[in-house]
Specification:
Elements (H helix, E strand, L loop, with lengths): L1 H14 L6 H26 L13 H32 L4 H27 L1 E2 L12 E2 L2 H30 L6 H11 L2 H14 L8 H4 L1 H29 L1
Antiparallel strand pairs: 1-2
Helix pairs in contact: 1-2, 1-9, 2-3, 2-9, 3-4, 3-5, 3-9, 4-5, 5-6, 5-7, 6-9, 7-9
Membrane topology: Multi-pass membrane protein
Pfam families: Fung_rhodopsin
GO cellular component, one term: membrane
Length: 248
């Protein structure tokens, strides 16, 4: 569905001769990472992800950890934050002065938090190979530390979604346009609240990272991570798609 929404968004931008802007570029990059995440997830499922660990061939376990938890995990965090950043950039175009500076600060803080989470996917163990090969001599952060930051960054991004979804009510309501048009705009731009909700649910699923059988229990986390990205991309596209309904 996110692919359809993004395709329609780009079509509307080009059709209206408005051209593409930075928010469109960032959203496309997020979608590309999301697509790659999906491909990798399908590959690790073929290797045994989603099964009880005892049912997974030992030679497949390091590859599942490297590609699934490592590469796909990194892509997931970047896709999440950049899909939200796209909407933040859109909001920036509607703000001025101090409010614009505040929104920019929120976008920057959100990127720092989530990019660090993407880095920590790899940096939590020394040497690096211990991330996907637990028997390798070395050290790793405690699950409490790594999971705690993951919950924090996920919850913070969810709060940012709620902020971006509610801000248009303040921005649009003062405009001199018909009341019906105002309602349509703010409702369309407030759909990001659903992205915030999925972010909070994802945070709850992060607790599965502490189980002994993440290979099986982690499927819920992967599913909700994909839901966060997909929902955010669709929410970012809906305001642009209003032009299609006006033309009907």
């Amino acid at each position: 569905m996110s692919t359809v929404f993004l395709g329609l968004r780009i079509y509307c931008k080009i059709w209206r001769s408005r051209g593409l802007w930075w928010d469109d570029l960032v959203l496309v990059i997020s979608w590309i990472l999301f697509t790659q995440m999906g491909v990798i997830c399908q590959c690790v499922i073929n290797l045994g992800f989603g099964k009880y660990l005892c049912d997974v061939p030992p030679q497949n376990r390091p590859r599942i950890s490297f590609w699934g938890a490592g590469v796909a995990g990194c892509f997931t965090n970047l896709a999440i934050v950049w899909s939200k950043t796209s909407f933040g950039i859109t909001i920036l175009r509607l703000t001025k002065y101090k409010l614009r500076a505040f929104v920019l600060g929120v976008v920057v803080a959100m990127n720092i938090a989530m990019v660090l989470q993407a880095v920590f996917v790899w940096a939590k163990c020394t040497p690096l190979s211990k991330n996907w090969s637990p028997k390798t001599p070395g050290t790793c952060w405690s699950l409490r530390s790594s999971n705690g930051y993951a919950v924090f960054s996920g919850a913070f991004s969810g709060v940012c979604d709620i902020f971006f979804a509610t801000l248009p009510w303040h921005l649009v309501w003062s405009l001199r346009i018909p009341r019906r048009e105002k309602i349509g705009v703010v409702v369309a731009m407030s759909t990001g609240v659903f992205a915030g909700i999925t972010s909070f649910v994802k945070c709850a699923k992060i607790l599965s990272l502490g189980t002994r059988n993440f290979n099986y229990d982690g499927t819920a986390l992967v599913t909700w991570s994909a839901a966060v990205i997909s929902t955010t991309i669709m929410a970012s596209c809906i305001p642009v798609l209003r032009v299609l309904f006006r033309e009907l």
